[in-house]
Amino acid sequence: MTRVRLVDVSIRDGNQSTWGATGLNTPQCLQIAPVMNRVGFHAIDFTASTHMGVAVKYYQEDPWERIRLMRRLVPDAPLQFIGTGFRFISWETLAPDVMRLVYRCLVRNGMSRFIVLDPMHDLDAMLETAKIIREEGGAHVVGALTYTLSDAHDDAFYADLSAKLAASPDFTRIYIKDPAGLLTADRAKTLIPAIQAAKGRLPLELHSHCTIGLAPYVYTVAADLGIDVLHVGVGPLGGGTSLPGALQTVENLRELGHEVDVDDDALTRMNDYLCALARAEGLPFGGPRDFDARFFHHQVAGGVMTTTKRQLEEVKLGHLMPRVMEEVDRVRAELGYPIMVTPFPQIVCTQAMFNVTSGERYAQTPDQVIRYVLGRFGRPARPVDPEVMDRILSRPRAREIAAEPPPPPLAELRRRFSPNLSDEEFLLRATLPGDQVDAMVAAGPARRRYNPDAAPILKLLRACAARPDAPEIAVDKPGFRLELSRAAPL
């Protein structure tokens, strides 16, 4: 029997995987925060740099304020931030002293648990990042073993990486991160023991998505093998392309004789709230997923899959999604099989979209694809296809990017902005368009409360306010009448 604890991913990864990172705003998070504190989660996956950028762009909300408010309402569970390399919000690489300031601000605003994920498994970069986080006060530093399928990424590879992370005094835990949900039960039975034999003092966790329906069963296998922390989503933010649903995971583990440390009543209340929110806002539920063998080729994780679909639908090209996913497989092979974890799924999927929608492959190449081919993200598992490399690097834009100077140090970057900015606002302005930050500042503090039962009425009121041609509107139904009249101008 294993005593299992849960990490909740609903607000960050579940929201990103199921709702494209745009489904939850600050009041919706705060409303359920005290209940989440009661559940007894081992940690709460709360935000990431991309997630913080979404708060500014889509909601005009200060992501630093969101962290502070959540920390006050959830004093008992560590709030988790996941980072990928030396970047924050934008795709641009930042200087080490700028990243040090990022982590300093995250810690003082309320984050205490940090995932260190390098998309190329660059050990030196992981060790440097962990050292910075610990020096800036991060209490929990978790090294990511990002699972993928290739000839290079066998059990011995992950065991060796685990041993090297364990040799560092700055890592406190490690976890298997399976962003595309590719880990099978058979592979888990060899991979997990290999890592356990090499990891030394570091506790081991498992984070696996349900993208092709494997993760719920793999979680029971992992518990049988002694993994005592599993990552889950709650309500509509579990299942689908997100992680296994919390309620079903608890039931499965207990049925098999394991003990799960949660407050069942609080977890049910959280589940009910998120279901009500999804219904009120017209947001999808995760639900079960069919097995799809194609994922073993393109390996696109849930959040990127959802975002890619939304981007196509926004330009009325949603019907091209199957072709884009076929193209993803081809582009990934041509780019040397990068591990499909941020930022590489976004890079590969964007190039695939351009290849399909433009009618000519590589007629358009985003800057981040050029930087990838130039080696700015590290060395891929296999060389980039020579013909593709020649086509990309022959463009004038590639020569411009190749000549770019290294990222500016903190002092130089600060000189570009007002000296009166707080560290937090400076970091937003250094990584986001100025007009987006201006709109956030002008909007003022975020609302604190949200009631899903009131959402339909508020939606109606907003729609009515946008109809100057309708001075009077009445809603009449059994047991309910609402009359609205537009006030005459003074």
- How many angstroms does the end-to-end distance come to? 73 Å
Say which CATH homologous superfamily of the largest domain is assigned: Aldolase class I
For the largest beta sheet, what order do the strands appear in spatially?
A: 1-2-3-4-5-6-7-8
Low-confidence stretches: none
Coarse morphology: globular
CATH topology of the largest domain: TIM Barrel
Number of helices: 22
Q: Judging by the overall fold, what is the CATH architecture of the largest domain? A: Alpha-Beta Barrel
Short account of what is shown:
With 490 residues, this protein is of the alpha/beta class. Helices cover 49% and strands 12% of the residues.
Description:
The chain has 490 residues and is α/β, with parallel strands linked by helices. The protein has three domains: 3-281, TIM Barrel (Alpha-Beta Barrel); 295-402, Conserved carboxylase domain (Cyclin A, domain 1), CATH 1.10.472.90; 452-485, no CATH class. Helix content is 49%, strand content 12%. It is built from 22 helices and eleven strands. It has helices at 10-19, 26-39, 49-59, 63-73, 96-109, 123-135, 155-166, 185-198, 215-224, 246-255, 264-281, 295-298, 302-314, 321-334, 344-358, 367-373, 386-393, 396-402, 410-414, 423-431, 434-443, 455-465, and strands at 3-8, 43-48, 79-84, 113-117, 140-146, 173-178, 204-208, 229-232, 259-260, 472-477, 480-485. The strands form two sheets. It has an eight-stranded parallel barrel, surrounded by six helices. Helix 1 (10-19) crosses helix 13 (302-314).
